[in-house]
Write a structure and sequence with these properties.
The complex is a heterodimer.
Chain A (H helix, E strand, L loop, with lengths): L2 H18 L7 E6 L14 H7 L7 E3 L5 E3 L2 E6 L5 E6 L13 H14 L3 H5 L2 E8 L2 E6 L6 H6 L10 H4 L18 E7 L3 E6 L23 E6 L3 H9 L5 E2 L7 H5 L5 E5 L3 E7 L10 H10 L2 H8 L6 E2 L25 H10 L7 E6 L3 H16 L4 E6 L1 H8 L7 E6 L22 H12 L3 H18 L2 E7 L2 E4 L9 E2 L11
Parallel strand pairs in A: 1-10, 1-11, 12-20, 15-16, 15-17
Antiparallel strand pairs in A: 2-3, 4-5, 5-7, 6-7, 8-9, 9-10, 11-19, 12-19, 13-17, 13-18, 14-18
Helix pairs in contact in A: 9-11, 10-12, 14-15
Chain B lengths: L1 H28 L4 H6 L5 H10 L6 H13 L13 H36 L4 H15 L2 H15 L24 H27 L2 H8 L4 H30 L2 H6 L5 H11 L2 H29 L7
Helix pairs in contact in B: 1-13, 5-6, 5-8, 5-10, 5-13, 6-8, 7-8, 8-10, 9-10, 10-13, 12-13
The chains are: A alpha+beta, B mainly alpha.
């Protein structure tokens, strides 16, 4: 046969495969998770592990591109009235749910309403929503009582966010997470089964309607290459690593820093840094105890801490942490240095004097920490020592996570508690912005700035107000950031299409092996 | 014997009732609740209170207990807060792994522990005894997580003979061949337990060997092996039987470290995870079933005594 004929045949075969849309690499991706998610219901659950699995199944109207800007997913665009209170969202045509039904505006309205009433982050937006209604065959309109700048970021954040469910599922649902038989979404994979302690399994959705355009972050074309995604709980980190090396897993999450150097040098493993850092937070009690309204004493505590040694002890290799005082990382649109001069002073003498001036006379300061997350405990140990050197009488109370969560809801039980925060695309989603989050920071200064921050739709103005809020956080110290932590995962070198970093949660559309 | 068995089964009822109260109180009195775990760190106290109501966990404790007990008597252990599945199904899945793992472990214990124990007692004081006793001491002292990780490194990562972790059900793809997933974990568990059995058999046999009837048997000129098996081992078996029973029961319910290292979906890990998640129905269900299981094993051990020792009469 003439070489040109081969070429023609090859091109023809490629074209056929492309038009038929059935050229999948196939196979099963085996993902070793740190544990099991509480539920996959994205409206009410904010666990990162839940989203890692669920964002293959459920989609929202918007998502984020590689620069963390919101971009259409089930929506193709929107028209916002000049006063910012009327938002008409156009839905993408031809989208099907996993049960075979077409996605309609009624489904979107029911989902948004359920999320607004019961969702983890829905109240933030729906406190400003007067109505949400279908206003066309492919259009849904939100009427706001006042302009609300972060609406699109909230819509695009699928974790605790407005995933679109069929109306039949969303309408009956309350605060209780929906049951697995109702895991019906529009994503490239559909829910197959959840065997407790064994795995959560997703299979390719053959009728998936992908958004168009080049893949960009979570946006653009999504192709399900694998037949099956299997998320397997492997709680022991040694087993996650050796299981990946033995070829039993293709991907393993949450690997500790002390293994980083060895794994980086290992050709049988690929390390993938998470682009969105998490950060530790030490909350202060604004309702009860010696720290209530005593901002000078809080600043004394802040002054005593040197964050770097704690990061070295708790995280390890320098590439995995940054002593960054800005609540959002460098390179992010929300990054600002406002107030960060007080981030990590580590001046015990000055702190001691400040504490005396603030009226501190050695009364015990109750500091709650959990051992469920080793870096919480390690950091707290270093801080306790630094605070003791500055003359503070720290009563370190160590609990399991469930106990800590219960105790922190009771203002008389604690003065400081340790938690961590995931990366969020808009500062309004940071827990300290929520007045009812334990710590209960709700001063008049905060309320004024927060009101202006949410009312503005102008990105530059919002950034300027956020800088003021961050400066206020360093002045009133409702919480102390401990620094940025870049978690990392490992993968088999056989996986293609992973990229070098994930935004927040790894995704396995456009990935094959 | 039938009357005895029935009688023993009847006495289980008050014991179980008392256990059920204790289990329920213990589970509900530890701080923390499933609602705040489900909703995560971002949830406000109002959110948590709302979900607590939706889950029916805001009712007075006595009412929740009576409701639970009523359902248990009808054979319904409730629904897992996290998995949204009947507790019995969740436990059944874990029980398959745990029973198979315990069974395979017992197989190794009998295969290695019993002959080595007998040999050590028969060659008391010799190098065989020294080696067996020393080896037993070593294996009893090695932490299971350490041994497990080394077995994974050598036989899964290095040689690739066995899978590193996990256990697909026998009804899944692979069928009976899936038992290969349990080889390394069962060896890990067998090591310290076989060591204990070796020491127990050796000690019991040495005790029995000093008794008069053994001296008589020897004086009659019986073959030493016959004396060891018929007269010494059989009598020593009474103490060992109880140990076998409780080792098996403990292997089913307490193999949490091994299950974690090998990522096995067994009962031990299920109960620890459920406690961390405060999944009340699952914790209650597992503990209740483990209590019943221990009682049954206890009963079987007593019945075995009667068969082994004619002096024990069951009334």
């Amino acid at each position: 046969m003439h070489p040109g004929t081969y070429l023609k045949l090859l091109v023809a075969a490629g074209a056929f495969a492309a038009t038929a849309g059935i050229a999948h690499a196939g196979g099963t991706l085996r993902y070793a998770t740190i544990g099991e998610p509480p539920s996959l219901d994205q409206h009410v659950v904010t666990s990162d592990l839940a989203t890692t699995i669920a964002h293959h199944v459920f989609e929202g109207l918007y998502t984020f591109d590689a620069s963390n800007s919101p971009i259409g997913l089930l929506a193709t665009g929107e028209t916002v009235s000049d006063d910012g209170t009327n938002i008409a969202i156009t839905l993408r045509k031809g989208v099907k749910f996993h049960n075979g039904q077409d996605m309609t505006p009624a489904d979107v309205v029911a989902s948004l309403k359920r999320w607004g009433a019961f969702g983890a982050r829905g109240g933030l937006l729906f406190g400003n929503v007067e109505s949400v209604a279908a206003t066309g065959d492919h259009e849904v309109t939100l009427r706001l009582s006042r302009p609300f700048g972060p609406w699109k970021n909230l819509m695009a954040f699928i974790n605790g966010g407005p995933a679109i469910y069929p109306a039949s599922v969303a309408e009956g649902a309350g605060k209780e997470p929906i049951a697995p038989q109702d895991y019906i979404g529009t994503g490239p994979y559909r829910f197959s089964e959840w065997q407790p302690n064994r795995h959560v399994e997703l299979v390719r959705f053959d009728d998936y309607a992908s958004p168009s355009g080049a893949a960009d972050g979570y946006g653009g074309t999504r192709v399900a290459e694998f037949d099956t995604l299997r998320f397997i709980p492997v709680p022991d980190v040694g087993t996650r690593v050796s299981g990946l090396k033995a070829g039993d897993y293709d991907y393993a999450e949450s690997i500790p820093g002390d293994l980083y150097a060895g794994l980086e040098a290992d050709p049988s493993v690929v390390t993938i840094l998470n682009g969105g850092p998490i950060f530790g937070l030490v909350f202060m009690n604004s309702k009860d105890g010696p720290l209530r309204e005593n901002f000078a004493l809080r600043r004394a505590i802040q002054t005593a801490l040197d964050k770097v040694p704690a990061l070295q002890v708790a995280i390890g290799p320098e590439g995995l942490w940054r002593a960054n005082g800005s609540f959002l990382p460098e390179g992010n649109v929300w990054h600002t240095d406002a107030g960060t001069g007080s981030f990590s002073m580590g001046d015990a003498d000055k702190a001691r004097m400040m504490a005396e001036d603030a009226g501190y006379a050695g009364e015990p300061v109750k500091f709650m920490v959990s051992t469920n997350y080793p870096f919480h405990y390690d950091t707290a140990i270093v801080y306790t020592r630094q605070l003791a050197q500055a003359g503070f009488n720290i009563d370190l109370q160590v609990y399991d996570w469930a106990t800590l969560i219960e105790k922190r809801a009771q203002p008389d039980q604690w003065d400081l508690f340790f938690t961590h925060h995931g990366f969020v695309p808009d500062p309004i989603l940071i827990s300290v912005m929520n007045d009812s989050y334990p710590g209960w920071w709700a001063t008049a200064e905060k309320a004024g700035l927060k009101g202006r921050f949410t009312a503005s739709a102008d990105p530059d103005e919002r950034r300027a107000i956020w800088a003021e809020i961050q400066a206020l956080i360093y002045e009133q110290v409702p919480t102390m950031k401990t620094g940025d932590i870049y978690t990392y995962n490992i993968a088999s070198p056989a996986l293609r299409g992973l990229g070098e970093a994930t935004l927040i949660w790894p995704h396995f559309w456009n990935v094959s092996k | 014997m039938l009357a005895y068995t029935l009688n023993r089964l009847l006495t289980l009822i008050p014991t179980l009732l008392a256990a059920s109260v204790l289990i329920f109180l213990f589970v509900h009195l530890i701080p923390g609740d499933p609602a705040s775990i489900l909703l995560g760190d971002a949830a406000t106290p109002e959110d948590v209170a709302e979900l607590t109501r939706a889950l029916g966990l805001d009712a007075p404790l006595w009412r929740q207990y009576l409701l639970w007990l009523g359902n248990v008597l009808r054979g319904d252990l409730g629904t897992s807060v996290f998995f949204r599945e009947p507790v019995l199904a969740v436990i059944g899945d874990g029980a398959e792994t745990s029973l198979l793992l315990a069974g395979m472990t017992m197989f190794w214990i009998v295969l290695f522990g019993v002959p080595v124990g007998i040999a050590a007692a028969m060659r008391h004081g010799s190098w065989v005894d020294q080696l067996a006793s020393g080896g037993a001491m070593l294996f009893a002292s090695v932490p299971t997580f350490w041994l497990g990780l080394y077995l994974i490194l050598i036989f899964a990562v290095g040689l690739g003979w066995f899978p590193s972790s996990g256990f697909p059900s026998l009804t899944d793809e692979g069928g009976v061949l899936n038992l290969r997933y349990l080889v390394l974990p069962s060896l890990t568990l067998a090591a310290p337990n076989a060591a204990l059995i070796i020491r127990l058999i050796r000690a019991s046999m040495l005790d029995v060997a000093r008794e008069d009837h053994v001296r008589t048997a020897r004086a009659k000129g019986l073959h030493p092996t016959r004396v060891a098996i018929r007269h010494i081992f059989r009598n020593a078996l009474i103490a060992v039987t109880a140990a076998f029973g409780f080792t098996f029961a403990a292997l089913v319910s307490e193999a949490v470290v091994t299950e974690t290292v090998f990522s096995l979906p067994g009962i031990g890990r299920l109960v620890v995870q459920s406690i961390l998640r405060r999944d009340y129905p699952v914790i209650q269900g597992v503990i209740l079933i483990v209590v019943v299981f221990y009682m049954i094993v206890n009963l079987l051990v007593d019945l075995a005594y009667a068969r082994l020792d004619p002096r024990v009469s069951l009334k």
